[in-house]
Write a structure and sequence with these properties.
Layout lengths: L14 H7 L10 H6 L9 H10 L1 H14 L1 H18 L5 H21 L5 H7 L1 E3 L4 E3 H15 L7 H25 L3 H8 L6 H14 L5 H4 L11 H12 L13 H14 L10 H6 L3 E2 L16 E2 L1 H10 L4 H13 L1 H8 L4 H14 L5 H15 L2 H6 L4 E3 L11 E3 H19 L3 H15 L7 H26 L5 H32 L4 H9 L1 H7 L6 H19 L6 H14 L22 H15 L19
Organism: Daphnia magna
Family: Belongs to the dymeclin family.
Keywords: Lipoprotein, Myristate
Length: 648
């Protein structure tokens, strides 16, 4: 065999692969398996390399497909792997040759699955990988799913087992893709049933913890295991030689490349797939979802009784919090944080009271600020997380006590010093304005306004630029409202164009009303703490004169008029009203302001609520992330699991 790693081009010359694909049956005890698994396969590490490998083995697969019904060699291959997996788990110290061969065996299975998922449904694959006994039929594919779970939780993640762990994660992902297609078609899946409330469910809590730990640890490549050996001819290090050659092609630097740098994210993808399916079942629950949404803090001296004891585990919240904050630029991380904040009460409370909350908020604001450069769903998830945070009164109050200095990512203008709350208002206001101008996405601006409304009663010491942007948005929207009204009065507008204009007008008026209520809440609850906001409203007082004439705004504008008229009268008495003198007059006037003259309005309090059928959005969304970010090879024809655009 030699120490050289074989390329795709000469796979067709490999005798052992031809035995597997050929017309002669191989028993589970055939010595050919050891030779096949010792073949120096160059396991692909990226999506493009996987694609090249799948395409390069197409002819071999056609040969296998034509002979397999008679030989059942794929079932024998799977039985050999299952036996090796059992031995691997049972032994505390398996040698590196055995681990390497087991990894090769699983990789060959994954390549076969990659070909077959394009052609077959779950029930057909189950049948192809079943083993008929005299009085029973053993489902090898279900056994494989269980064994992959058990390897991940029982075999320690060490330098020599890293690639095996990675192959387990990717093969499980392929199996779950097949299962998801079946699950969404008829609400049934043998593989999901096995993993959710069959033998695979026994390790649900352990697997959830393991995948979260992989994600938090960002496990690096075992560099020394991949290094080219000093002495050639070793079949044991043949795979390592090939992988090192692969890495060397992409980097000429002395530092080794972290070929498995995506291992943490692949683990997270698997966790997201497991936790977002079967969440609405009436007869049984998803144990992975239960575990993810109920684990406790390993650093908390107070032992909290778990909601789901069988699925509960302990993890250091501070490590997870830090990891999440560092990676919120990635939509997989954003979805995980959304799930935790929305449904994990203990972790949500931990986040609300975290001393370093600005780290998370700034990361989310950066994603909103980039906006146009990000996928829409990532933007939605970031915004919903801010809405979830704004549901807490303590959070709304604390963010105005945190001072941010010179945020370089905010490029609209220089902000030398601003409160975190003020920065949040600026970015959310900017998002509304951009959305109204470009997209008029009602879902997006509704969540933006709900977030601002939750914060409004806690506005304090807002930066002059924050107040300017907030009032400027009010003026911009009013001008647009007037323009749309004029267009509707034109006799040239009819049919679809008129309907679109009427829809635009409805959205604009809805946003205007909410902005007026936000200003009113700030003045009602925090008048004395917002001299800059009063100043900005006085500076653009004419917009209130226009809005006052609209019946939908009259009641709320009356309160703003009360504030505006009171401070206008004070300022009119100044002999030389400069900016400083006006602000000083406003601050002094706040002390004597007659608050009893303000009409009481219901408190602005919004809570995020998921749709009745959240799986209709989240399952396609998760699989779209698998397609775009996993190392697996997907074709557009393969990805038929709904469309994440169907729901928001």
């Amino acid at each position: 065999m030699g120490a050289q790693c074989s390329s795709i081009a000469n796979l067709s010359n490999n005798e052992q692969l031809f035995q597997l694909c050929g017309s002669i049956p191989l028993t589970a005890n055939d010595p050919a398996w050891n030779q096949l698994f010792s073949f120096n396969l160059q396991i692909p590490l990226s999506n493009s390399e996987n694609h090249e490998f799948i395409e390069g083995t197409a002819q071999l697969f056609q040969l296998l497909e034509s002979n397999n019904q008679a030989t059942r060699n794929t079932s024998s291959l799977l039985r050999v792997f299952l036996a090796r997996a059992t031995e691997l788990k049972a032994s505390a110290q398996c040698d590196k040759i055995f681990i390497w061969q087991t990894c090769n065996a699983l990789f060959i299975l994954r390549v076969i699955f990659s070909h077959w998922i394009r052609l077959e449904k779950e029930a057909v694959l189950i049948k192809k990988f079943s083993f008929q006994e005299e009085n029973s039929c053993e489902s090898l594919l279900e056994n494989l799913a269980v064994q992959l779970v058990e390897i991940l939780v029982d075999v320690p993640l060490r330098e020599e087992t890293a690639l095996l762990h990675r192959e387990c994660v990717q093969t499980l992902m392929l199996l779950l893709f097949v299962a998801a297609s079946s699950y969404l078609t008829n609400n049934k899946s043998i593989i999901f049933k096995c993993l959710m409330h069959g033998p695979g469910a026994l390790h649900a809590g352990l697997l959830t913890r393991t995948l979260l730990q992989h994600y938090c640890q960002h496990q690096p490549v075992p560099v020394w295991w991949l290094r080219k050996p000093e002495q050639g001819g070793s079949i044991v290090l043949g795979l390592a030689t090939g992988l090192w050659s692969l890495l060397s092609r992409s980097s000429s630097s002395a530092e080794p490349v972290d070929a498995l740098s995506d291992f943490a994210y692949q683990s997270l993808l698997l966790l997201l797939v497991l936790t977002n399916h079967c969440s609405m079942e009436k007869n049984w629950s998803n144990p992975y979802r239960q575990a993810l949404l109920s684990f406790t803090d390993s650093q908390d001296p107070v032992q909290v009784s778990p909601v789901h004891p069988s699925a509960c585990f302990r993890l250091d919240y501070s490590v997870l919090y830090s990891t999440l904050c560092d990676r919120l630029g990635d939509e997989r991380t954003t979805l995980l944080l959304y799930m935790l904040l929305h449904q994990h009460q203990q972790f949500r409370n931990y986040v609300y009271t975290h001393a370093d909350i600005q780290r998370m908020v700034i990361a989310l604001l950066q994603e909103l600020f980039k906006g146009d450069d990000e996928g829409s769903h990532h933007l939605y998830m970031s915004l919903i997380i801010l809405l979830l945070l704004s549901e807490d009164e303590g959070f709304n109050s604390n963010i105005h006590n945190v001072i941010i200095r010179n945020p370089l990512w905010y490029t609209d203008r220089v902000l030398n010093e601003i409160s975190l709350g003020g920065l949040a208002v600026i970015v959310i206001t900017r998002t509304i304005q951009r959305n109204i101008v470009k997209a008029s996405d009602k879902y997006l601006h509704t969540n933006c306004l709900a977030t601002l409304a939750n914060m409004a009663a806690y506005f304090r010491r807002l930066h002059p630029y924050t107040c300017e942007r907030l009032v400027s948005l009010l003026c911009t929207l009013n001008k647009r409202r007037i323009r749309v009204v004029q267009q509707l009065k034109s006799s040239d507008v009819e049919g679809t164009s008129r309907e679109q204009l009427e829809q635009d007008l409805s959205i604009i008026e809805e946003v205007l009303r909410m902005l007026l209520e936000i200003l009113n809440a700030a003045f009602t609850h925090q008048l004395g703490c917002n001299p800059n906001l009063i100043y900005s409203v006085l500076h653009k007082k004419e917009v209130l004169d226009v809005l006052r004439r609209h019946p939908a705004f009259q009641d709320i504008v009356a309160n703003l008029d009360t504030v505006s008229n009171y401070f206008s009268n004070r300022i009119s008495q100044l002999s030389e009203p400069g900016v400083n003198e006006i602000l000083q007059s406003i601050q002094l006037g706040c002390v004597d302001f007659p608050k009893d003259q303000l009409k009481k309005f219901p408190e602005l309090k919004f809570r995020y609520v998921e749709e009745d059928q959240p799986e209709e959005f989240f399952i396609p969304y998760v699989w779209s992330m698998v397609q775009s970010t996993s190392a697996l090879c997907w074709s557009n024809d393969d990805m038929t699991i709904g469309s994440e655009n169907d729901a928001k």
